[in-house]
Specification:
Helix 3 runs antiparallel to helix 4. 11% of the residues lie in helices and 39% in strands. By secondary structure, the protein is mostly beta strands. Strands 10, 11, 12, 13 and 14 form a five-stranded antiparallel β-sheet that branches. A four-stranded antiparallel β-sheet has the order 1-25-24-23. It has a four-stranded antiparallel β-sheet with strand order 2-3-4-5, with no helix packed on it.
């Protein structure tokens, strides 16, 4: 079946936005800024209390090895016809700033989490954050506070890594002279310095009914995940026990009606490449071993959110062999099945890349996704708008 996607230039989108978004269900996509040659990646989107959309991403001549990388952003004022000019959100001179995540808490405080890469290695990254209460005017937010988010996974971290790998991991064949991957990670987990550095952001925090904030994190040094937990509105943070699995990365967390938390994770491990799944029954303190689902994943980031309807939405690359296909899938049974799927972007392999989605459901019920676009030379951050009805249309 061929799925036709309606894509309109920004001027037509805003001119006819009331018609498209309120009179019928459609997918509308646009570029937040004109395509250009620098690397732009890993966006994050939130809706402000006044209805504005705020988006950020990282920009520069590369990623961890490019010291000119910084965090940029833009805003779509409620009712405006175009996105504001790009502005700077964060920059640590002579260090790469990557993987920004926006979050607005229960008191309408804006948070920007991101990493500063030391020694041009992901595993030496420092987790930082800024906060603002003055962010609904044109231009960049006025930041009130900035700090490093320190975490101290203890000896139980190492014990959990060892127990999970010994119980569940199946690595297949290994050469006699090559140490097993899991044994190297078990040994590395004993090192306090390695445990306390290199934790990186990617997906939005999850807020539990009692107010607990869970910031999902991952480590490229370990290829493990965990959550930074705050029970006091972000004043203090501590580390959960690790999410353990073979080659897992970049958790996104959603809560079931019975209180169980489900983390879906990028798969960097053994074939077949599938979205990985870990669960927590104690509000994010501990996590089950991460096993494969039947959802394809080409070692690419994804995000899942619970919608106002109770349905779950997953945006992901729905193939094992590239990022040329970006899909939105809807589940009405809390992730047991994904009955409806439409493509937000689709092309031939190696023609273009659509990746690292960030999604939010706004107060009016519409679904907004931002994602990285590149055809090799031309790069931008795309913005897509649709609703649940569009996903269910044949």
């Amino acid at each position: 079946m061929t799925i036709k996607i309606r894509s309109l230039v920004p001027s037509l989108f805003f001119l006819f936005m009331p018609y498209f978004l309120f009179a019928q269900s459609n997918l509308v996509t646009e570029s937040i800024f004109p395509t250009q040659s620098k690397h732009v990646h890993s966006s994050s989107i939130v809706e402000c209390a006044n209805g504005d959309l705020l988006v950020c991403w990282f920009y520069g001549s590369g990623e961890r090895t490019a010291d000119d990388v910084l965090i940029q952003g833009s805003r779509l004022k409620k009712g405006a016809k175009k996105w504001e000019a790009v502005f700077e959100m964060a920059d640590t001179p002579d260090f790469p700033d990557c993987n920004p995540v926006l979050f607005i808490d229960a008191s309408d405080k804006l948070w920007l989490f991101w990493i500063v890469v030391q020694a041009n290695r992901w595993e030496h990254s420092v987790l930082k954050y800024k906060t603002s209460t003055d962010y609904m005017k044109p231009g960049a937010p006025t930041w009130l506070w900035q700090d490093v988010l320190h975490l101290k996974p203890g000896d139980v971290f190492a014990k959990t890594v060892k127990e999970n790998f010994h119980k569940w991991a199946d690595e297949g064949m290994w050469a006699e002279y090559a140490p097993a991957y899991t044994e190297m990670l078990i040994e590395a987990a004993k090192d306090p310095i390695k445990r306390e550095t290199g934790w990186m952001t990617r997906c939005h925090p999850t807020v539990l009914p009692g107010g607990r904030i869970l910031l999902p994190l991952y480590s490229d040094g370990y290829c493990l995940g965990l959550t930074a937990i705050s029970d006091d509105g972000g004043s203090t943070w501590r580390a959960s026990q690790p999410m353990v699995g073979l080659g897992l990365n970049q958790p996104t967390i959603v809560r079931k009606n019975n209180g169980t938390l489900v983390a879906y994770l990028r798969d960097e491990g053994v074939l077949p490449q599938r979205v990985l799944r870990s669960t927590s029954s104690d509000n994010g303190e501990t996590w089950s071993y991460a096993f494969d689902t039947d959802i394809p994943n080409p070692a690419s980031s994804l995000e899942v959110v619970a919608l106002k309807s109770g349905n779950w939405l997953m945006v992901y690359n729905d193939t094992e062999d590239g990022r040329h296909s970006l899909a939105a899938a809807l589940s009405n049974d809390e992730g047991q099945t994904w009955k409806w799927k439409k493509h937000l972007a689709l092309t031939e392999k190696d023609k273009a890349s659509f990746s690292y989605p960030s999604l939010v459901q706004t107060k009016d019920g519409f679904l907004h996704v931002t994602y990285s676009y590149s055809d090799g030379e031309n790069k931008t951050i795309k913005h897509a708008v649709f609703d649940e009805q569009w996903l269910k249309m044949k």
